Amino acid sequence: MDLEQHFDATIARDQRIEPRDWMPEGYRKTMIRQVAQHAHSEIIGMQPEGDWITRAPSLRRKAVLLAKVQDEAGHGLYLYSAAETLGADRTDLTERLIEGRQKYSSIFNYPTLTFADVGVIGWLVDGAAICNQVPLCRSSYGPYARAMIRICKEESFHQRQGYELLMTMMSGTQAQRDMVQDATNRWWWPSLMMFGPPDAESANTAQSMAWKIKRHTNDELRQRFVDMSVPQAEKLGVTLPDPELKWNAERGHHDFGEIDWVHFKQVVSGNGPCNAIRVSRRRKAHEDGEWVREAAAAYAAKRKEAAA
Ligand code: BYC
């Protein structure tokens, strides 16, 4: 069997493609693009919540937030490693990110104005991430699918910590309840945008579904997230900021309002509220870390020399 037939048969049998296997160049390129964007999102995603570590309202909340932000760094590291198994170079990926040549999720370009944002990010942003990533545990590329299993377990814990934080705030003062509602109003629509453009405009979905990199389309997952979030909002006692949101018995799903795709495109192309600061902080961290990379390389060279 030739290499391409073997690849197609592996995908058709629902088995995994591993780093040693032959794969079409398009598959490799698509995987590197998605895994790198995902890794960048985890790393840039540390910033909005990280802004609250020094201002968390109690020692317990600070410890929880610190652990969560640290988990996101871990996710980024597994994912950069997965990208390396495809032949990508991590230094090159980092440079692409800080030079604005590679994307990261639109959701991390919004400010976190109050501590309720930390809870809403856990509830909605991690909730959307789980919705999107659980099917990726069955993605056809082995190292990505396996990284996703661990990431999803941690994301699920993150989602619960966010919801618990919000439940606590909702049983507090009116001012605290208002903060939760305000944060929900600001994060709801950007969370729906996390799933990517509508299917009709999604350049990559058809091919990625055929290769079983993606298991569901952007719109399918967005709908699943809306259906999942409505009862959670009710239980919490907040209103989702969409007057058109209502149950459609015929479809067996909630209908919802039009998403502002013009705004989405602006954010993705670098013009969202916080794009500039997110990238410049990442660049500074990379530059500040140069001495660590140099020291690690010098130490590795020394050990190699000693071993020889
Ligand atoms: N933001 O053809 P499409 C987290 C891009 S982090 C920016 O539908 P695809 C967390 C898309 O990449 C979780 N760009 O693409 C961390 C493509 O770009 P190219 C992040 C977006 O790949 C810290 C173009 O638009 N999750 O959970 O088939 C704290 C056309 O789109 C976005 C992942 O990365 C967006 N929202 O589908 C808390 C999940 N949407 O071709 C939480 C993995 C689309 O110009 N990724 N684009 O380079 C995926 O599942 C898929 O890549 C997507 C997009 C569903 C996002």
TrEMBL record:
Its lineage reads: Bacteria, Bacillati, Actinomycetota, Actinomycetes, Pseudonocardiales
The cross-references to NCBIfam families, in alphabetical order and at most eight, read: PA_CoA_Oxy1 (TIGR02156)
EC number(s) on file: 1.14.13.149
Q: Name one Pfam family in it.
A: PaaA_PaaC
Classification via Gene3D superfamilies: 1.20.1260.10
Database matches in InterPro entries: Aromatic_CoA_ox/epox, Ferritin-like, Ferritin-like_SF, PaaA, PaaA_PaaC
Return one GO MF term.
phenylacetyl-CoA 1,2-epoxidase activity
Oxidoreductase in keyword set: yes
Residue ranges of coiled coil: none
- Keywords in alphabetical order, please: Oxidoreductase
User: SUPFAM superfamilies, from UniProt?
Assistant: Ferritin-like
Q: Which domain of life is it from?
A: Bacteria
Establish whether keyword RNA-binding is in the entry: no
Q: What is this protein called?
A: Ring-1,2-phenylacetyl-CoA epoxidase subunit PaaA
Q: Where is the signal peptide?
A: none
